[in-house]
Amino acid sequence: MDDPTHGYVNYVDQATAQNSGLINTKNGAVAMTVDSTNVASGRGRNSVRLTSKASYNHALIVLDLAHMPGNACGMWPAFWTTGPNWPSSGEIDIIEGVNMQSQNQVTMHTSEGCSLAGSSCVDNEGCSVEKSGKFGDGFNPGSGGIYAMEWTSDGIFVWNFDRGQEPQDVLGESPDPQGWGDPTASFQGGSSCDIDRHFRNQQIVFDTTFCGDWAGRKWAEDSTCSAKAPTCEEYVQNNPAAFAEAFWTINALKVYTSDGSTDPAQPPQQTISIPAQQPQQSVPTDQSLATEFVDGGPITITSLGPPAMVTQVVIGAPVTMTVGPDFIMPQAKVQQQKADCPDGKSASPRVERRAKRKPWRRHLGQHLRSAAAVHL
Fold first, then answer.
1. Residue 361 and residue 260: Cα distance in Å, rounded?
2. Angle at CA of residue 323, ends 320 and 324, nearest 5°
3. Which pTM was predicted?
4. What's the whole-number mean pLDDT along residues 65-80?
5. Cα–Cα–Cα angle for 191, 196, 197, nearest 5°?
6. Are the beta carbons of 324 and 255 closer than 8 angstroms?
7. Residue 312 has pLDDT above 80, yes or no
8. Which residues touch 151 (CB under 8 Å, ≥6 apart)?
9. CB 79 within 8 A of CB 94
10. What is the pLDDT of residues 320-365, one digit of tens each?
11. pLDDT tens readout for residues 267-285
């Protein structure tokens, strides 16, 4: 498929991804990577883009990563959500960065009429909170960590926790962000932005692209990278070994909603499948899930709970992840803008309003385990 961000990348289909090892399971985790062996040609370097077929409104998303793509010139990895008819339904970039960037950048993109974190969120520039958590090589030592995003009518908030420093409930059945301390990025809604109007029907996306509208545009401004080749595309094409660390290793992706309901527009499926090479066995994952591993076949997780709690993950062309209904996003420590709050106050009104919401509850169908340990 063509990259909507105009990158030098070739997103491959299911068979190519599986046969070339660009997506696999390893040590109880799902791994997604790029081609780091061959000189690129055609559209660009082979990579994987996963997009949830279901879309979501208001949720808490918790991503447990053992590894995100390490820093490399020309690379642009991201974990994000987006709605239809961009940018009218909004975009939330939870993890994103380019080239040798050491800190994560959380960004919102919307149509006209939304300002968050003190700036307009319109179109490509968006409104960003920089230095909102670790990114690339700075994230990976110590087995990575956790990113979480909470999305309500009041705002969008993102947290980043180092491994071993995460709250005890962050991966539990009913996590409560109220006890997690200040977010690392905070986008408070109010008179400056109607969150429900500007963010809706979001699909979740993992991708690793190259060059394009951001990494390519920044190439000439980056003295380290521009010294390696005249253009971003030339460097990415001819230096496959530079991308040996360009992989995601996902321990868990959990999605929570406040009422346990699913999106009525997205009827739940019945199974979750990703490629695997594991001996045949059965492993119970929790009270509601049982997993079978068949040599050369897919990993299939079948829910034993209510039908409404079941969903499906399918690797398609382009590699496509179908996940269950309802998601959310997080943020980090940022000064609260009075203009963001309709009552003219700062941080405390957000805390008070969030305290009145229903508790988050995990959707059993929205959590995938590979080799009894991977959630998508």
1. 6
2. 155
3. 0.75
4. 98
5. 80
6. yes
7. no
8. 58, 59, 60, 61, 92, 157, 195, 199, 202, 327, 328, 329
9. yes
10. 333 333 222 222 222 222 223 333 333 222 322 333 456 666 544 4
11. 333 333 344 433 333 333 3
Tell me if 48 sits within 8 A of 321, measured CB to CB.
no
Q: How many residues does the chain have?
A: 376
Report d(CA 161, CA 111) in Å as an integer.
Answer: 31
User: Collapsing DSSP states into helix, strand and coil, what is residue 111?
Assistant: coil
**How many Å apart are CA 18 and CA 214, to the nearest integer?**
29
Residue 51 has which token pair? 């997009």
Question: How many angstroms separate the Cα of 299 from the Cα of each of 133, 192, 277, 302, 367?
Answer: 32, 46, 9, 10, 13
Closest CA to 153 of 354, 360, 331, 334: 354
Q: Is 234 a catalytic residue?
A: no
The Cα 29–Cα 250 span in angstroms is 6
Tokens coding 6: 């105009």
Token representation of residue 63 = 């991503």
Q: Which residues pair with 330 in a beta bridge?
A: 157
The residue among 192, 135, 134, 208 whose CA lies nearest residue 337 is 192
Partners of 134 in the beta sheet? 103
> Has 150 been annotated as catalytic?
no
Give the separation between CA 32 and CA 49, rounded to whole angstroms: 9
Average pLDDT, the chain: 76
CA-CA distance, 104 to 130, in Å (whole number)?
6
Residues 147-169 have pLDDT tens digits of 999 999 999 999 999 999 999 99
Amino acid at 99: N
